[in-house]
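Quick sanity check, Tryptophan--tRNA ligase, mitochondrial:
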Amino acid sequence: MTHWSTLQRITRRSYAQSSGNITSSDSIKKQRRVVFSGIQPTGIPHLGNYLGAIQNWVALQHKLAGSPSLSADSVDSVQKILFSIVGLHAITMPQDPKVLKRERRESLACLLACGVGPGGSLEAAKPRATLFFQEEVPEHAELAWYFNTLTGVGKLQRMTTWKSKLAIAGDGDKCEHEEISKAEENLRLGLLAYPVLQAADILLYKASHVPVGEDQQQHLELSRDIADSFNHRFGKVFPLPQTMITPTKRVLSLTDPAQKMSKSAPNPSSRILITDTPEQIRKKIKGAVTDNDRSITYDPVERRGVSNLLSILGACHATTPTAGNFATSISQEDIHPDILAAELTRQGISGHAQLKGIVADAIIEKLAPIRAEYARLREDVPYLRQVAALGRDEARDAAARTMAEVRRKVGLDAI
Ligand code: AMP
Ligand code: TRP
């Protein structure tokens, strides 16, 4: 009998401790709670995006909907949650305009299908998330320019994402140190400045909390540095945003578990898209690289492939949390992978084929409603446009207020 339903009933261990640098609920109670996160419209989100980010965005929406209001009337007491599809980030790498346009629309439909944003009815009761296209709010690029004037080039050149793009774009060989490498010649200024634009995304809304996967930690540190530099130089405008690292912070590639699952990896079997059919999911999981040890144990250092499957299985079990304490808002009720491993072993599961069958079932069950909803929404372009316009107007409102303040502080307001 499958073990998946049994597993769903076994002891769960909360991941509360792994929610990034958020520590005590008391310290948070006194803060504004503005949540912001973004995703690039470069293809259908994969399971890493879903388990590492999107699923937690939905959880946060539920939390915010149920969290008690802070004191009523100051602007600072407003609780907001904003998610952006970041087209300006996407074009830091070459994109085909037709494909990009289609992918932007698909990204919106995907996020809605996952439960992010206003939900079925645009009139739905607030609070709910503002979902919008970054490029429809020109203040993002404007604030990024201000931040460009505060950010050291050296710091940007030391960012891991820049360095990994350099390694891919070039032949890997740096020329003599005074010369510019071939890779640097090929890459664009926008890519180097990518994290500055990300800081602008976050700080434009004075976000206090940013739920992301582990790969974004360094970008968030830069956002805090930039906020701090601005505040020191011009007076306090920005909060220092906190990273909310999600429990499933790093889903690994199915074909190379040394790498994270990624949209840009050349091998499509390395990732499961949230719109994949059950057959595709089964095939990709069947082909997932594991190891020669038939036993099922969780060891993310020595046994990455098997551990990745166990983490995915645990995260697929995560239920959308109900309203509660914000500080633990992304402490999902996942089943911890090492408990899962023990339970599977206890149930007599051995061998990776059986494990893969269970994992595939769990993913299929998780993604089935999303896939169906996506198929419906993708065709409903008028609705997608309505959602985008609503999100744009809400975001612009907040963005305009921050930019007016920034211009004034810097001395670039009306003479
Ligand atoms: P991107 O697709 O790069 O725009 O990423 C969107 C969100 O998904 C970010 O919060 C990332 O941290 C998260 N993310 C991307 N890949 C993974 C992964 N393999 N595991 C966990 N989270 C991920
Ligand atoms: N850089 C993020 C990524 O690649 C996407 C992103 C852009 C983002 N702006 C953001 C994430 C602001 C969080 C907050 O995944």
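Posting the structure with no commentary besides this: The pocket of tryptophan (ligand 2) is lined by residues 36-40, 86, 89, 198, 201-202, 210, 212, 216, 219 (CB under 6 Å).
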